[in-house]
Amino acid sequence: DQQVKQNSPSLSVQEGRISILNCDYTNSMFDYFLWYKKYPAEGPTFLISISSIKDKNEDGRFTVFLNKSAKHLSLHIVPSQPGDSAVYFCAASASSDSNYQLIWGAGTKLIIKP
Amino acid sequence: EAQVTQNPRYLITVTGKKLTVTCSQNMNHEYMSWYRQDPGLGLRQIYYSMNVEVTDKGDVPEGYKVSRKEKRNFPLILESPSPNQTSLYFCASSPSTGTSYNEQFFGPGTRLTVL
């Protein structure tokens, strides 16, 4: 059973508009969440993270929102640009896990239309 | 340039023929890890290493071996590959063993096909 779920395999957004990527988790022990971005033929690269003590973290055009009661987080990209077209992975971690393991979602492919 | 390198990038092999995928990082990172990525499943951890001579199993270690004889290298060994090990493999490293909160740096991936 997947503990981190990204239910939208793909998302298409007009350039300049807002992109919202969603992620749900089931393990209430998760207390740190990360978003990674992946271009074809490259490895994932870190984008932004959030600790469970916060409900929002912002970095330029990227904002991550965390709703602990709903076990849901979302990544907002405003405005969306063509270079944002990539696969976005959500990952979660529990500080109680002595292995410091990251649990990954299946990814959402974001397509920015010109 | 700080980076994680993997070789080979692409490999087609046959069942049972031992192979090694190399991984090297030049950032002096303590933590290194191997993942496989399969459609609809995201990244799953195979093995990880907290430091030299310290390795441990991840979620899907069956059929794989690793070693960490020096800090920069973390090879992945498939002693007897099988078709269900056809996948995209990523090596990653991180600066601290203390937490996965630290950003992980990924290699470019190795596309393995086992016939």
Highlighted features:
heterodimer, A: 114 residues, mainly beta, 6-stranded mixed beta sheet, 5-stranded antiparallel beta sheet, 11 strands, B: mainly beta, 0% helix
Uncertain stretches of chain A: none
Helix content class of chain B? under 10%
Distance between the termini of chain B: 36 Å
Number of helices of chain A: 0
Major protein interface: A-B, 27 and 27 residues
Largest sheet of chain B: 7 strands, mixed
Count the strands of chain A?
A: 11
List the helices and strands and how they pair.
The complex is a heterodimer of chains A (114) and B (115).
Chain A (H helix, E strand, L loop, with lengths): L3 E2 L4 E5 L4 E7 L6 E7 L6 E7 L4 E4 L2 E6 L4 E6 L8 E8 L9 E2 L3 E6 L1
Parallel strand pairs in A: 2-11
Antiparallel strand pairs in A: 1-3, 3-8, 4-5, 4-9, 6-7, 7-8, 9-10, 9-11
Chain B lengths: L3 E4 L2 E4 L5 E7 L5 E8 L3 E10 L2 E4 L7 E2 L9 E3 L8 E8 L10 E2 L3 E5 L1
Parallel strand pairs in B: 2-11
Antiparallel strand pairs in B: 1-3, 3-8, 4-5, 4-9, 5-6, 7-8, 9-10, 9-11
Account of the 3D structure:
The complex is a heterodimer of chains A (114) and B (115). Chain A is mainly β. Chain A contains no helices and eleven strands. In chain A, 0% of the residues lie in helices and 53% in strands. The N and C termini of chain A lie far apart (37 Å). Chain B is an all-beta fold and 115 residues long. Chain B has no helices and eleven strands. Chain B has strands spanning 4-7, 10-13, 19-25, 31-38, 42-51, 54-57, 65-66, 76-78, 87-94, 105-106, 110-114. In chain B, strands 2, 4, 5, 6, 9, 10 and 11 form a seven-stranded mixed beta sheet that branches. Chain B has a four-stranded antiparallel beta sheet with strand order 1-3-8-7, with no helix packed on it. The mean pLDDT of chain B is 92. Classes of the chains: A mainly beta (114), B mainly beta (115). The A-B interface holds A 2, 4, 6, 9, 32, 34, 41-46, 49, 51, 89, 91, 93, 95, 97, 99-102, 104-107 and B 4, 31, 35, 40-45, 48, 56, 58-59, 90, 92, 97-101, 103-109.
